[in-house]
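We modelled the chain as a single entity of 321 amino acids. Its sequence is:
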Amino acid sequence: MDCYSPQNVSAKCAYRLIKKYIRATPIEECRTLSEMTNSQVFLKMEHWQKTGSFKVRGALNRLLTLSPEQKARGVITASAGNHGLGLAFASEICGVKARIVLPVNAAPTKVHMLYQFGVDIVQAGRDYDEAEDVAHQIERDCQLTFISGFDDPEVISGQGTIALEILNAIPDPDIILVPIGGGGLISGIAITMKERKPNIKIIGVQSEASPAMHRAWQMDMVVETPIDETIADGLAGRLVSPSILTTVQKYVDDIIVVSEKDIIQTILFLLQQNHTLVEGAAAVGVTALSSGKIDIEGKTCVAVLTGRNIDIEMVRKVMGN
């Protein structure tokens, strides 16, 4: 597949399938950010979603569209944690046996949460990309259906339902800030938004410690990118999908990288100003605003807060800054 598009991604169809199982998360103005940027800044509180992240949307839509044969065989995925949690939740609803492959350095909080579901858990690989290699080997050996956390039209359609909820609350936003790792979330939001609001600006944000999509975007090709230690573990990956890169190049207006130090300060900022605790991956959009990486003066901007499953040791690290 060269590119995802409205021809194979439909948030509207996905929403009909998943809406009874998910939360329509609220959108709240962050007045401090609005004053700081001389604009209107709203936060899409997707970290209040079931399982603690947006990932449940795409996982549910994918499992609800499996064939009876695929459901009978079972599914497998690789995940840094949140997609695995979404798939585990969806597997309970759909009655599908699921196996989750996590890297050995997965956040303990997410691993512990996964063990509360009736799924098989495998920890293998130094990072997400190696865990995915293991998952594909198990897929072949056990004849399971692999469910990507980002490179799948049904998963992307599910993530795109966030855009429908944003437009329902704010009919004419100017800019959407979206954390970007594998690119499934920003692809779903961008395709859905651009179809309805062609002039809207969709901007991806990731950590400078794991800038695979940003680097691929700049070089106009998939290239392996080293990962440094990052608080935004949910966005970490050495490689990007060619089809996702093509989609991002077509529908996303810009990609910004932010520093680890600024992400930590943003987690503290959101805790102080909005009394909400998010994981590092969720904070990068707000970080782009609070660190002055983007000028949105006079605009209406929505930053998507994607997850809250931050490990307690990471909280202690953040609070020590």
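As a brief sanity check on the tokenised model: The radius of gyration is 18 Å. Residues 11-50+153-319 form a domain with the Rossmann fold fold (CATH 3.40.50.1100).
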